[in-house]
Amino acid sequence: MSGLPPLAAVRVFEAAARHENFSRAADELGMTQAAVSYQMKLLEERLGARLFTRRGRGVGLTDLGRRIAPQVTGSFNSLRETFAAVQTESDTILALTAPRTFATNWLAGRLGGFHAAQPDLSVRLDVSDKLVDLAASEFDAAIRGVSGPMPGLVAHFLMRMPVTPLASPSFLASHPLKTPEDLFTVPRLSPDDDWWDLWFSSLPQLEVSSPSGPAIRFDSQVLDGHAAIAGHGVGILSPPMFKQELMLGLLVQPFSHCALYKNGFWLVYPEHKRHSAKVRAFRDWLLDAVRQAAGNDGAMLQPPERA
């Protein structure tokens, strides 16, 4: 773009040509008249041609200036419209990224409530377990399952993840579970998941049997949940993420005991988004939705202790 004159000078020319007056152009641009004159001198030297004629105390456009002025004004109008459209989209669409289980099993079914509360705002939800660099990305905010706040990000704690075995009624009918020890005699989904170790270790005086043999292994709680509903085994899952399935009887919690995972879910966003109206609106709605969902389970709302 070496042939393009300095945009600062072009911007001054557009205002001066529209007003055909350096003083009014200076007032519009918040400059002095001398600064406007200087920018026009630079532009004319760059072009090697006069754009204005000086007449008495005023100025008028030359034939060249009159020929290019409408095109320059049209270009600036196009730029204004382009950036206005971007700003409008930015103000009305919240771009959010969230891990699969939280997004699919908890958040998606509640976003209708956010839209009802904020009808002028839409949420574009990216479902991914990948941690993106929010400061350099298109996303306004993220939900993350981490142990605590992360450097450089504003963080709001949402909830802990209680974990416990869940299974389908048909599976439990053919594989009765009377004590936690019985879990070592039935198919367990993803038996090497550290949530199993957490749950077993939180039980007092549990005699751990031999390690599990061949089993179905998945890389997400969502898939473990679907397999458990299908009757393929017992999954170690977080009940708040499967509340609907538990209410409908698709899953059953055979033991009342839950263990709390070391990580929790946090809403995070870059510091420069702190005062964004759409981010504040989503934050307030989400924190209220979490409190309502937790009900009397105060332990869920306590942030994990940092090591």
Automatic annotation (TrEMBL):
Pfam families registered for this protein in UniProt: HTH_1 (PF00126), LysR_substrate (PF03466)
Positions of the HTH lysR-type domain: 5-62
Keyword Calcium: no
Superkingdom of this protein's organism: Bacteria
InterPro entries listed in its UniProt record: LysR-type_TF_proteobact-type (IPR058163), LysR_HTH_N (IPR000847), LysR_subst-bd (IPR005119), WH-like_DNA-bd_sf (IPR036388), WH_DNA-bd_sf (IPR036390)
GO biological process: DNA-templated transcription
Swiss-Prot/TrEMBL keywords: DNA-binding, Transcription, Transcription regulation
One Gene Ontology molecular-function label: DNA-binding transcription factor activity
Presence of the UniProt keyword Transcription regulation in the record: yes
Family recorded in the similarity comment: Belongs to the LysR transcriptional regulatory family.
Annotated protein name in UniProt: LysR family glycine cleavage system transcriptional activator
The species this protein was found in: Sphingomonas aerophila
